Amino acid sequence: MRKTILLLMFVSFSFSLSAQTLEVASPGNIVQLSFYIRDGVPYYSIKRFGREVIKPSRMGFILKDMQSLDKDFRITSSARNHFDETWTQPWGEKKDIRNNYNELTVKLERPSGTPSKMNITFRLYDDGLGFRYEIPEQEGLKKFEVMDELTEFAFTDDHMAWWIGAFWPNRYEYLYRHTPLSKADTVQTPFTMETSDGLFISMHEAALMDYPSMALKRTESFTYKAELYPWSDGTRVKAEVSLKTPWRTMQLSDDAGGLITSYLILNLNEPNKLGDVSWVQPGKYVGIWWAMHLGYYTWNPGPKHGATTENTRRYIDFASKYGFRGVLVEGWNLGWDGDWVKNGDQFNFSTPYPDYDFKGLADYAKQKGVYLIGHNETGGAIMNYERQLTDAFSLYEKLGIKAIKTGYVNWGRSIKRIDEEGNAQLEWHHGQYTVRHYQKVVEEAAKHHIMVDVHEPIKDTGLRRTFPNMMSREGARGEEYDAWGSEGGNPPEHTTILPFTRLLSGPMDFTPGIFALTFKDRPANRVNTTLARQLAHYVTIYSPLHMAADMIENYEANPKPFKFIQDVPTDWQDTRVLNASIGNYLTIVRQDRNSRDWYLGSITDEQGRILEAPLGFLEAGEKYVAEIYCDGQNADWRTNPYDIEITEMLVDNSMTLSLRLAAGGGEAIRFRPATEEDVKRLK
Ligand code: NOJ
Asked: Mind telling me the catalytic residues?
């Protein structure tokens, strides 16, 4: 970790502050925040370059069976702090990240009653802000229940927003809608919007632990409030002092690409708590997976069982031959027979089906220099899973299984919990009960040196900084929807929206790289992109664990485009956005963390377009070979998706490339320093 400047300043005020407005600005005075008490109620407002972004918005809590923390407040003291540090990610989309903010902590008190004290900390960054509450230790308060968090976000106008709804049954797996705020009622975060004068705003939260996930509910015109996912008994938070909430965050940028390169969410999380994490290794994996989604194999045993010893050996051989680190095998363990979504408590996470030689395969994988990825589908039966966690993870560690992919397929409020009286209750995937579970799995996995990739997850809030074995998650419609989604798959624009919404929360296991884009026996479904676009997704979608999701025979049949998937890394030195328009197009370049190579991914929606890519990011004075995978002249996602051109050319950092993206298309480029031989060959 490289510390540049670290400067602390504290100023304390006395009780006389009750009528005062406190102000704090970001280090470059770009974002300004005011905090004040009006008629005993706390409010904050936000400006950027002096222009209002959030109008006065209320703060506080309603508590159960005790005095609420909502009114009669006065400010008892405040403290300020300036912080500037550059820290290094063990792995990530950028190696060194600057964490530079001004902080204001305000202490509030009600004149009498219990509880009476509440603190709020604001951190102002040049690219946005975060704030969190603390309900500190105080006389007479130990355990308490929050019935409502009153935090408001009063936007200034009917901004256009990209959103998915909260409390919808299929968790985060919906296509994003693009509407004015007045048409978006209760939404998940990240919630991204654009003002009519071109400011991009994204609302989210950071460091969500032991607290429910926050949705946003529109209460009037353009004002939203925190809507915490409740427990089955209607309470929102079951807490103990001292309670620190997650950070409520707002990222601000003049261009959409600036949201992607804002690291505010990570900065608001605590540093690595796991110590030496050299065992955490980003990489690519293949797996016995896509064939299940297409119906060629089954998870359950029988004539089409995918997870057989023979099949798995084939995948291990392939992974070893082509340099993949992991092999995912789904349907290897007892519990898949019958309706596994309804009967999740039948899953056994240590016992294989008889046609799957678990130990022999783990040894074979080790011998071949790869590892098996343990698939733990729970069907949402988390009590069953928790009972087995320690034993299963100890076994995996012993067998050299370095990663797990967990799953929580189930709909709506469907997570079973047995309460203190022994009654079964149903909880939301995103309430405090389940947030605790997701965290427990990460921490237990860390004890056994296991990396975690969660499907049907709780949304990411940057906890990978604190727990670097928390690698990737799904949490949106991934590639699997192309196999069976009722609308015929994800439309081309879907992946031009995700980087500005879902991916702002953190990495996504989208499972890209499908080469057989249409399916013989499923004419209503297809992958709605060109082939070149499938390659571009390895750069535009960030994930430290990226899958090459297709069946291996489809890669073996297409060695030339497959070369890009073999080459592209999943751990980056730096990330830059060259073109960005939400729902329309995106070009990202990333530098490999372990070489001097750069990679470019560019994608467009249903519309073909030409985008300019200035190569100024390359090292000056150096010649590079650009290995270009672009849409062919006749490519079109609907009529001719396979038309791809693969060429090489010499480039340097003074050049600008014109990227010709077909409708639904994309382009992927690897830039590597040219050898003398390359220069001769390509001149
Ligand atoms: C849903 C996951 O997203 C998918 O990847 C997995 O194959 C199935 N659940 C079964 O666990």
From this structure: 480
